[in-house]
Amino acid sequence: MPGLLMLLAIALVLLVTMLTAMLVREMRRPPRHTEAYAIARNMACDPGDLDLPFEQWSLDRPDGAILPVWEMGEETRQDSLTAVFVHGWGHSRIDSLARIEPFRSLVDRMVMYDLRGHGDSQHCLSRLGHDEHLDLLALLERLGDAKFLLIGHSMGAVIAMHAAIHARANHLPVATRIAGIIAYAPYCDFHTSLRGRLGVAGYPGRPITDLAMLVHRILGVVPSSLSEGELRALDVPLFKKALPQ
Predict the structure, then answer these.
(1) With pLDDT > 70 as the criterion, what percentage of the chain qualifies?
(2) Which distant-in-sequence residues (6+ apart) come within 8 Å of 19 by Cβ?
(3) Using one digit for the tens of pLDDT, what is the confidence trace for 148-205?
């Protein structure tokens, strides 16, 4: 009997280890929503499929990451407004196309990009929002002197809020040009969101998620969350809308 219990314990440890490794890999390497994904689901592959003229270019980051960008419209006046769309984990700029309709006639320019490890981004893994607000701020600087409306979904909403908070705390010039944030299905705690995702999909949560979070911390990646203090520091207009992820 002790031998059987030992075997069961070993099997349980191996199972937990395997599930943790799979979750860690999935978190850093989410499904790629690229053109093939869109074609298979009869979705628009790019803004041109929605009769929107666009320019495609890349945001090159100092660590070698390459983040592809779609830019639609242009600055036509000094107080022009640019909507910047930030997608959630496991999505891409292709998914952001589904959110543009209400804004087409309200803004002068629309911009969307692929987060690290998503879509057509290159030479990078997902950082689960960790320091990804710096990529967004670099994008805003690249886009010039327009006013910006940040439109984020889930993790993208958290990234957008962190960008506004960081810009204000560090007195960056772009801070005064962030006119507001629209946050679809934002969360405060990444771990809670992760457990919810797994539960909906029928997968086990704790202790797998706790171990996966620990592994990421060891690797230097702290999934992005929002504390009460950070939310209080957010001093731009914020509209939150709860949607299923």
Answers:
(1) 96
(2) 204, 208
(3) 999 999 999 999 999 999 999 999 999 999 999 999 989 999 998 888 888 877 777 8
Q: Which domains occur in the chain, in start order? A: 31-188+225-241 (3.40.50.1820)
Task: Produce one character per residue of 107-138: b if its CB has 16 or more CB atoms within 10 Å, e if not.
Answer: bbbbbbbbbbbbbbbeebbbbbbbebbebbbb
Distance from C-alpha of 191 to C-alpha of 34, rounded to nearest angstrom = 27
Question: How is residue 124 written in tokens?
Answer: 């990078």
| CB distance 69 to 111 below 8 Å | yes
Cis amide leading into 30 (omega within 30) = no
8 Å CB contact between 83 and 149: yes
